[in-house]
Design a protein that fits this description.
Layout: E1 12-15, H1 16-21, H2 24-34, H3 40-58, E2 67-74, E3 79-87, E4 90-97, H4 105-121, E5 129-136, E6 159-161, H5 166-176, H6 200-208, H7 212-215, H8 222-241, E7 244-251, H9 257-270, E8 282-286, H10 289-309, H11 316-324, E9 327-329, H12 330-338, E10 371-375, H13 383-391, H14 409-418, E11 424-431, H15 444-453, E12 458-461, H16 475-479, E13 485-487, E14 492-493, H17 505-513, H18 519-526, E15 532-535, H19 538-548, E16 555-558, E17 572-573, H20 578-586, E18 600-602, H21 604-607, E19 612-618, E20 623-626, E21 629-635, E22 641-643, H22 649-665, E23 669-676, H23 698-710, E24 713-714
Parallel strand pairs: 4-5, 5-6, 7-11, 7-12, 7-14, 8-9, 8-10, 10-11, 12-13, 15-23, 15-24, 16-18, 16-19, 17-18, 19-23
Antiparallel strand pairs: 1-2, 2-3, 3-4, 20-21, 21-22
Helix pairs in contact: 2-3, 6-10, 8-9, 10-11, 10-20, 17-18
């Protein structure tokens, strides 16, 4: 291995001898310069101790055969290992707890997780011995037994030690395992590849349909089966004919696009066998952090429960790790390929840097998966948003800056799969009218990328993609000169699995938001099977929801992220981190963090792609019906609402997102919903001024009257 000190995969790496002669402050400076994350001060103090401990530890092994790596990144998991030692065929995975005198189970689990992540994801670690070591620096004892785990996976049971015994512990490992095969010289830039076991939890999802919190399957699923069969046929033909293909799947809200994506991933990976088919796996990707977090945790808990019932020894962390092999956040997947490019980019052309990547026999410089499934593809980033993000060094993990990045996220993701030298298939799952964040490109960016840069890719497309809610109805225009396009009705999911009592809920919501005269007619058709009611009182809304839900059914309050005057109604906005979303969606009704408590309201960002049984949509003054049309307002944070006029392109984009936010919220319920439009505050002070000028009745009355005019029953 070359003595390269910097690499996109880590903050510092060097040979043992190079590390020993490097001044401590020089190493610390490199770590600080390349670090990208919170609490740099805390990290700096820990690094000082780690550098000192590791210098004294490897001093006796001063030779170029050993290598030390600080802060090694596992990009798909968003984790970094404190220190990795590569020596005499053994991979030492070391986690430090500086200043700690006690050994905690959670810390032991953490270092074991890192070791297993390397075993499961890191191609050049799969055949080598991996030794996880927890170093609580003030701990006065040390592990006395070094032995393999009972799983026979070439991972040693976790070892624990204080700083004074670390050298002797490593020495004991080296003596116990003296004849290990060499580690690949390109270990640090190894491709990430799943091992021959894919998650049992995902398979259980389709065999037993047991994760009801996320994947209720009470509707006729002929439509999803037909779509899955078509996609698998495209994948098969792509392999047989050694070509590249992309499929665009459309669907009404709740139609099962996510289920289709997960099912294709499982079926393609197993292909009817008990074990995965080598080098033909598929990966499900989403840019929706809450969706990935909630799906992963739900499947992991389900898997963990089943294993416990079968008396299998398993930890919940094992189940989470297995699930994360095939359900991943798209940004981390993207960053794997970013780490391979020549930087800075020259002449607007992306090129692979051979110093940073390994060319595989069939995969080329691409990722190992032949098949990548992108959920909510319409939410991929525009060129400007991605370029600005990378310009300031915004990648996960390391401070990697890429100035003048030339592609949108859609184009870059296609480019990444195009690096394969054999075949590849991309599946884009597309929700219409659901772009809800600034910088989300919509589906037109994918079409433009195919037309302009990847015209050799065969395009399979749903005819519904030509409708107005997708790419502003411009798909026909965008594709008119592309002769490599095939249309198929099989790529549209027209039946909502979420609203299992009424297939027309999404049509009703679309009509409501567009002032379509058919809204009243559709409401009359669905109201008996799928109740939609109106109120102006949050207490009444809560009572209605509590009366509706039974057993383990879920309910919750939803607001838009632009909503601002909800505190007077005793509603708190759910914090934006994904852990809160996991608790909100998955904890039972006895837990105050649960959505069922009706205290924390989730926004469109947290609920897109997910669902509840019954919902309350709390309609604030951010979108108001005035004179038969919607008007849009943003709160200035203290005293007033400012109207958003569509007089600039950015304002038009924001208005579109605000409308789509309500489209998302109004389509989250499986069984029924209540819409609460507050009355506002009509009171005045003794001196004649409004008691609360931010909640005037006129801000809400127009919306209430419009919804009432449709015929929605008021309680």
């Amino acid at each position: 291995m070359n003595n390269i000190r910097s690499n996109p995969r880590c903050l510092y790496n060097n040979s043992f001898s190079g590390f020993i002669i490097d001044p401590e402050m020089s190493i610390l400076g490199m770590l600080c310069e390349r670090y990208h994350g919170a609490s740099l001060t805390t990290a700096r103090e820990s690094w000082k101790a780690e550098i000192d401990i590791m210098k004294s530890t490897v001093f006796s092994y001063e030779d170029d055969r050993g290598r030390i790596i600080f802060e090694y990144d596992i990009p798909r998991l968003g984790k970094r290992i404190d220190v990795v030692l590569l020596y005499k065929g053994i991979i030492f995975c070391i986690e430090f707890k500086v200043g700690e005198a006690n050994i905690l189970e959670a810390d032991v689990d953490q270092v074991l997780d890192y070791a297993l992540d390397l075993k499961n994801f890191h191609k050049f670690s799969q055949n080598n011995l991996i030794v996880p070591i927890l170093v609580a620096t003030k701990y006065k004892s040390c592990s006395s037994v070094v032995q393999m785990s009972v799983y026979d996976d070439r991972v040693v049971n976790p070892l624990v030690t204080g700083e004074e015994h670390l050298f002797s512990l490593i020495d004991a490992v080296l003596k116990k395992f003296p004849n290990e095969p060499d580690i690949d010289t390109n270990w640090i830039i190894s491709p990430y590849a799943p091992t021959p076991t894919i998650i049992e939890a995902a398979r259980s999802l389709y065999e037993n349909h047991s994760v009801e919190d996320i994947t209720r399957h009470e509707a006729d699923k002929v439509s999803t089966d037909r779509t899955i069969a078509y996609i698998l046929k495209v994948i098969k033909e792509s392999k047989e004919q050694q070509k590249k293909s992309i499929c665009f799947v459309t669907g009404v809200p709740g139609a099962g696009k996510t289920l289709v994506g997960l099912d294709v991933a499982v079926k393609q990976t197993y292909q009817g066998h008990d074990d995965p088919v080598e080098d033909e796996g598929a990966v499900y990707l989403s840019g929706n952090g809450p969706l990935v977090a909630v799906l992963t945790e739900a499947l992991a808990q389900d898997n963990y429960k089943k294993c416990r019932e079968r008396k299998e020894k398993k930890k919940i962390t094992d189940s989470r790790r297995e699930v994360s092999k095939s359900i991943q956040i798209i940004h981390r997947y993207r960053d794997i390929m970013l780490a391979k490019i020549k930087n800075p980019v020259e002449n607007g052309i992306l090129e692979i840097d051979p110093e940073k990547a390994i060319r595989m026999e069939r995969a080329g410089f691409g990722e190992v998966e032949h098949v990548a499934i992108f959920d909510e593809a319409q939410r991929s980033w525009t060129h400007k948003r991605l370029s600005d993000y990378l310009k300031r060094g915004g990648t996960y993990g390391n401070k990697l800056k890429v100035p003048n990045f030339p592609m949108s996220e859609a184009a870059f993701l296609i480019w990444s799969l195009d690096q394969r030298e054999d075949w590849a298939t991309i599946v884009c799952l597309v929700g219409g009218g659901q772009e809800i964040n600034t910088g989300e490109a919509g589906i037109s960016e994918w079409i433009k990328a195919v037309n302009e840069q990847f015209s050799h890719w065969e395009v399979h497309i749903s005819p519904k993609l030509t409708e107005a809610e997708y790419a502003e109805g411009k798909v026909n225009e965008l594709l008119e000169d592309n002769h490599n396009v095939k249309y198929s009705e099989d790529l549209h999911l027209g039946v909502s699995l979420r609203s299992y009592r009424a297939e027309k809920v999404s049509a009703f919501v679309h009509s409501l938001l567009t002032f379509d005269d058919n809204a009243s007619k559709i409401y009359d058709e669905i109201k008996d099977r799928y109740p939609i009611v109106l109120t102006r009182d949050m207490d009444k809304a809560r009572r209605w929801l509590h009366e509706k839900v039974r057993g383990t059914e879920r309910t919750g309050v939803l607001v838009t992220k632009e909503a601002a005057r909800f505190k007077p109604l005793a509603i708190h906005i759910l914090p934006s981190d994904v852990e809160n979303a996991v608790h909100w969606f998955l904890e039972d009704k006895a837990d105050t963090r649960s959505s069922n408590y009706l205290e924390d309201a989730a926004t469109e960002i947290q609920v897109q792609g997910l669902e509840l049984d019954y919902t309350c949509v709390l309609w604030d003054a951010d979108m108001r019906c005035e004179n038969g049309e919607w008007h849009y307002y943003s709160f200035n944070g203290n005293t007033k609402w400012n109207e958003q006029k569509g007089n600039t392109e950015s304002n038009q984009e924001k208005i579109k997102y605000m409308l789509n936010a309500y489209r998302v919220l109004l389509t989250r319920a499986r069984a029924g919903m209540i819409i609460c439009v507050p009355e506002g505050n009509p009171n005045k002070t003794p001196s004649g001024f409004w008691e609360d000028s931010t909640r005037l009745p006129e801000y809400y009355d127009g919306t209430y009257k419009y919804l009432k005019s449709i015929g929605i029953e008021e309680i």
